[in-house]
Amino acid sequence: MQSNLVETLIGTVVVAVAAVFLFYGYSSSGMRSSSGYQVKAAFSAVDGLANGADVRMSGIKIGTVVRQALDPDTYQAVVTLDIASNVKVPDDSSAKITSEGLLGGSYISVTPGGSDDMLTSGGEIMFTQGSVDLMSLIGQAVFSATDSGSN
User: Fold this and answer.
1) What stretches of 29-150 show up as alpha helix (H) in DSSP?
2) Which DSSP string corresponds to 104-139?
3) Are 23 and 76 in contact (CB under 8 A)?
């Protein structure tokens, strides 16, 4: 009888820990329903950017990447952002894709503009800068160092 009680308690603890992990995974995955307004931004390249990635202003998370699609006319990547309803973004703001570090993920950094007019749902951030390919930068640095050393 004693071993049945111990097994039951251990099973209860395992189920509780699993529930905590599921809750954490759900809350950090960005799968929650949108609570703000959606704006779009077109980038030349979105390498490393995933749905659910952060949208930050001054280092503070203000939204989430909701959707990515290719514009068949301009061949640019159109990214839909869900911005928190309590954050007002000027319509002349700029957005760029940056990395958290060498091994970190990518996120969108929004720099506010000076306009008095704010973006509304369905608006578009016009000034964008796509992601930078780290491997091509390293390759360019290596080849430029090799070329300058041969003269």
Assistant:
1) 134-149
2) SPEEEEEE--S-SSB--TT-EE-EEE----HHHHHH
3) no
Q: What is the pLDDT of residues 18-72, one digit of tens each?
A: 888 888 777 666 555 557 899 999 999 898 889 999 999 999 999 999 999 999 9
**Segment (H or E) for 67:** strand 60-70
Lookup: tokens for 138: 């390293």
For residue 38, the tally of other CB atoms under 10 A from its CB is: 17
Token pair for residue 106?
Answer: 């990518």
| Rounded Cα–Cα distance for residues 129 and 125 (Å) | 11
The residue written with tokens 């703000």 in the block is: 36
Rounded distance, CA 51 to CA 39, Å? 14
How many C-beta atoms lie closer than 10 Å to residue 123's C-beta?
Answer: 17
Q: What is the pTM of this model?
A: 0.69
| Eight-class DSSP state of 131 | -
Contact criterion met (CB below 8 Å) for 95 and 125: yes
